[in-house]
Input
Amino acid sequence: MRRLLRPGHTFAFDGFFGWTREDGTTKTISVEEMAVVTTDGAEYLIPPQEELVLIPSR
Output
């Protein structure tokens, strides 16, 4: 079903990707973004993540 986007519509994107490494451990990447439709396009509701955050292993 198609619907028109209208100012005020709010969207959340929760992207997640996981995979198994050769040693059997699992690695994951995730991102969450929220935006609202405006008359000129859209605005993020929180600052978007623009860089990867690396959490080193022990």
